[in-house]
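Structure in, sequence out. Go:
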């Protein structure tokens, strides 16, 4: 039984993540074009990009600790989950502030948030787990 190259796994994981963010970006652009004006959509896309960059900067030192100082993977997953949850809360707050000035549309906002933020994260996770299992079993 041959081992799968770590570079192949890394390339597939990076490809999954890039496809995930590209698809989310396209969905945000389409929904913004459909339901909101161009100015609000551009502000949201800039805010979303900034949050993604900040999450990357926040996680980078912990990844370095994992590589160079043998930080426990469990601790890294917990830290990553906390940062991800905090980011999702910030996105939700930004959506409320930017798109909804009255709270009558709060149910629609929660539905929108779950459909575009929570479910895709779970699908990405499951897809990567399945791909990992297929590659490790097949090779």
């Amino acid at each position: 039984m041959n081992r799968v190259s770590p570079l192949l796994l890394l390339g597939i994981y990076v490809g999954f993540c890039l496809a995930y963010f590209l698809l989310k970006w396209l969905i945000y652009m389409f929904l913004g074009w459909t339901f909101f004006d161009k100015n609000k959509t551009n502000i949201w896309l800039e805010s979303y990009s900034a949050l993604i960059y900040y999450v990357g900067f926040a996680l980078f030192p912990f990844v370095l600790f994992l590589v160079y100082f043998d930080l426990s993977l469990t601790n890294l997953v917990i830290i990553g989950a906390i940062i991800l949850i905090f980011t999702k809360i910030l996105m939700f707050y930004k959506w409320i502030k930017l798109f909804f000035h009255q709270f009558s549309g709060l149910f629609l906002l929660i539905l929108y948030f779950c459909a575009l933020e929570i479910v895709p994260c779970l699908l990405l996770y499951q897809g990567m787990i399945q791909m990992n299992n297929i590659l490790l079993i097949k090779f």
